[in-house]
Fold these 4 entries.
Entry 1:
Amino acid sequence: MGKIKIKKNDVWIDMTPMSDVMVLLLTFFMLSANFVKNEVVKVVTPASQTMAKVPSSATLDITIDPEGRVLMATDKVVTMEKALDQMLKERDVTLNAEQKKAFLAETQIGIPMKNLPEYLGKTHEEQVKLLKTNGIPTDSLQNREDKMSEFQLWVKSMKNGYKEWYNGLEDVDKSGVANKLEICIKADKQTPYSSVKMVIAELQDINESRYKLVTQYKKLED
């Protein structure tokens, strides 16, 4: 008896819908993700059991390294731009268009305003070294010609810059956007307490008493 031959058909799967879904997912994550900036000065924060999360956007990040030097950053470039314009007027410092562009590309502020033009004229390697050995002046009691330290002026300028940007948005565009810039203090676990206390005191002097202390989560059994 002859064998019955079963006709074999090639299996073909249409991958077009899957490709469409993958492209949509990739686009969604690219548009919704907040990319972490590569900070020049990094700190290892102390551990705590606090579960509260730090906002992912609209933050003013104040970093205090182990030597007590203070640096500052924000995730809003437009806020930085408006703050820079205010600081240039306050400190009577002049930057050209290229220097302003280079400054706005920085991930952290850590240079006194009087040294900013010279700093922006150096190579990237030289800038990194200067950023790790300087810091924003925070002493509001010595060597001052005005009522606020340079650190306090930066905080005020950042807050005002964000407020000005936010008020300039159309009402329909404010959905999901924070109405104020939140201050986050991130100190290294080796940073002296006196340095952290000084930064907090500087903030309180300008009526900024609401801030978040950034730590890393520590489990109870640890």
Entry 2:
Amino acid sequence: MAGSGTGSRLRLLITTWAVTRAVLLLCVFRVLDMPGSDVAVDIEVIYKNWYGVFSTGVFPYDDVTWQYPPAAALAVLAPGLLPFLDYAPAFFLVCWVADAAILAMLLYAVRGGRRDRRGVWVWVIGVPLLGPIVYARYDVMVTAVAVAGLLALGRRTRVAGALAGFGALLKIWPVLLLAGVERGPRTRSAWSSALVTGVVLVMFFAAAMPGALAFLTFQRDRGTEVESLGSLVFHLGRHFGWHGRARLHYGSVEFLGRHVHAVSALALGLSLLAFGWLLLWRLRARTFTACTASDAAFTAVLLFTTTSRVISPQYVVWLIGLAAVCATVRSTRQGLPIVLVLVAAPLTQLEFPIWFQHVIASDKLGVATLTLRNALLVVATVIACRRLWRATVNVPPSAAGEQEPPAERASELVSG
């Protein structure tokens, strides 16, 4: 009876994944029309153009919209693995495969009751809440690498470090996966593996393809994007006499006008403060349990997503992937922040693409939706930081010995 119930729940989970992903594919293939902007345009125009440039053996170093680390070229070139399809359909299918790979990794992680299956549901439900944008950007591929690395931290520290290093050269943020690795040999193993992987890949791309590091200049010159936390200053300011503009700039819609540079600098300052808090936590943390690595990774990415000058919709894919891994660990302290991220996902889909014109116009509907989404991310970040600190720093000496064993020892105990 128990086995039958487990099998039924697994079939329900897989069926839900299959149905929701079919709907997403129908959207990006334009079989189903979705209100608002067409999220697939960037793939059909910008990504396809990059693919043509990469095919010549160079990076698009004169294109300011190219703002990604060198290994991102592999994601852009990936649709070439399906030469019988046009670029955009092949790209969507590669993203679908990455999505399926994440599902498979999570299911493998929870097999035999070793982890909580609710984490798999977080991924299955979270992605459709965010909408077709998941298959219209390469972030789901990066998330697949990050999920693999975070799940590997339990036993294969060097593999996890290598995946984090590779992920960092896809889109920087996966390096944060290593924020919560237990001190000692595990930290040295993970970080040395990540460093070696990163250095080798950078040297390879720099030697093989001119323009590999041009993205650094383009990232430096970015301003305040209209969906970011700092943009709310200008959305509200428009109703009180501020006369700036929202224009396509450096590959995204940003605000241009007076005081924009100051707000952008403030956002960078907040990111530095976030880094400082993370470093302080790392130095002060004294209790590392089975959930610390995933909780810390989720918290770190929340911190840098929320304080960024740019909060593109696809960034939420990262949070959903890391939230799914967190939720597979029964002792996770991040339950409420995970729920808040899941609530923020459909609001993100509303502000882009469905109501994006309202956001650009800074009208009441656009500002209200964006404010609510960003407020949820801020609250989730504050709660996540507080819970991580309390679970690892503010632990009474008498309770420290009663904490769960670190992830590696815990998995060994479970597996016998």
Entry 3:
Amino acid sequence: MPFTSNSDKITRDFFDSLLVETRYLDAVIPSTQMTLFGETFRTPIMTAALSHLHNTAPDGMTVYARGAALSGAVHWVGMGDESELEGIVGTGAKTIKIIKPHADNREVFRKIEHAVKSGCMAVGMDIDHAFNSTGGYDNVFGLPMKAKTTEELADFVQASSVPFILKGVLSPRDAEKGLKAGCAGIVVSHHHGIIQYAVPPMMVLQDIISATGGSVPVFVDCGIESGMDVYKCLALGAKAVSVGRHLMPLLKAGAESVALRIEEMTAELAGVMARTGVRSLDEMDPTVIHRRAF
């Protein structure tokens, strides 16, 4: 897919700078099964928290969710009204709802409550949508946003009876603050190049994992297009990855096409795991990754 910002190209170049050594002796057929928040999934490849997919395909949001459900993957969802979220959860997809940093915290609390009542397995906040490109607070589809304090974030965590995840983290500093607030997971992401020249998520992944002490799962989002990309993220410590834009062109062909691509990527992942001597996701080894000059 074409790059839409410098950050996307930088991220792709960084992925391609990571090289993998092979380890055949004593290797076995691997398992890609993943457990997250008490649920078991067939793959660590998750959908990304997209929104407004009705602009891409009819009923795009539920088609996307059904694709995740068919492939045994975690499903993430972004903006949308209450009935849409209820329909998404109704597909059977194990869903994580990501909420924007609305200026009015009452709206955040209301969305947390609704997501929990609807049956979402976790909720979270997209903190990187707080500001616009000219230094003011962002406005998303007419909805005013505002940056949140660590204390406000802690209030959101306390309001949720399901795990609360911090999305849009690109520094150990924000990861540490998220952990202080009680977040149960971190998504390392630059939101498809929301700022130019953003550090690639993979470049700071290990620093962020170190900052959290491995106490919560850390996920990677942005630019993931293949099982090899997935492998590199997992080898460097990610719990799972999110794939969004790579799947969007498949929505018009239906949920089965989305599921098939997730399954293909999972098979690609398994192929690399077998050739590097990794039997399960818990046995990923960062020493298999080497980096050429970037």
Entry 4:
Amino acid sequence: MEKRKKKLVFPDTLIIVAIVVLIVAVLSWIIPSGTYDYKEMNINGRVRNVAIDGTYHVIDKSKVTTTGFLGFFSSLYRGCVDAADIIFVILCCCGTFGVMVKTGAFHSGIGVLLKKFGKKGLLLVPILMILFGLGGSIFGMASEFYGFYPLIIGLGIAMGYDAMFGFAVIACGEFIGFMGATMNPYTVGIAQNIAGLELYSGTWYRAICFVLFEVIAIIYVLRYAKKIEKNPKLSAVYGEKSIHEFSEGDLESYSFSKSDAVVILDMIITLVILMIGLMKWEWDYPQLCGLFLIMSMVAAGVKKWTPNKWCSEFIDSAKTVVWGCILTGVAKAIVVVMGDAMIMDTVIYNLSNLLKSAPRGISAGLMLIVQTFINFFIPSGSGQAVASMPIMSQLSDIIGVSRQTAVLAFQFGDGLSNIFWPTADIVIICGLGGIKLEKWYKWFTPLFLILLAAQLVMIEIAVFIGY
């Protein structure tokens, strides 16, 4: 009999993340449980619980919940429950913008752009990436851009490239901007307040970092575009149909009508109101979803759709991201297991002790690595700041690194890994973009390593110049 060679099949991302949950569940029995004492602190007008350095203490394992066999499977359910707000945001965003796209207004708008910039208008890449980057760098915008993913991915495909190209333009643009934060209130603002620094001091150096990182990312994306332009088979998603692909004929043949203009205006007004609300009135996911629903209903009304047609198109669009929603919940289970066993603070405590014994020359770089590692367990920028910065700011005094550099290491570690760790934003935006996580890792890992090296260089320069 003829022997058949079995093709090595890469496991589904859900399986990989579930295995990580299982590993953390096993570690919940091994890693000592412990916690810092916390105090309430008013930071930029909001009361937050902040860890107190030097107060870490071990807790008896009998007083915490370690994850057993049934607990492991239960944690997957609890992760989905805890991530319910994010899951519904993903469903709402994709359903809403599915409706917006199906009105045909964006086909017409993108057709106009293609006529203006040409089929290979790569000039749009640096413009869009810098705009998204400035939003993340200055205002800390992340979820505010969720609605743009279908549009930018569709534009990337219409330009003759692929879904990964469009996805990278917005994902790298906004999150590398978030990493190179100049005045991000959720990272730099909170971290500097905790560290006792003047608010937004040292902006000049962070601005240099922002420009450097964005330039690296733009070059990487443009090189990828040129590569698949020469050989489409080199596409990271070759042979896969995107859920955001505009396949309805030649986009350049679309005419831009008055109703199309009203739909586009509807979207612009909604996004402006949302940005003002998020920054001025502390709006959150409920207001975001509410505005998006209203926006899609107005667009449907402009195009004279029936209510039944709006419902049908909304549901059909939301169906496309069910996989991403489940993945988001499963990834959240990692945090659930660690929280039950109370081992997060133990990880932070031991990592900070590791830094104390490191030579000054490499301690700042190690601080960056530690913060990147901590972001796996605490993927929230503000959450990581209040949990780690009280310890790291005191530790920086001991190891001879300035507190400004400690803040820099924190913002670098938090920002970049947001689009790498499966516990962070990447699972959300992959769901929105219809991009498989394993495909993203294959495409992004080289850029991640390049940017990590650039971060280490900028950290060491900061130490050298006494930043």
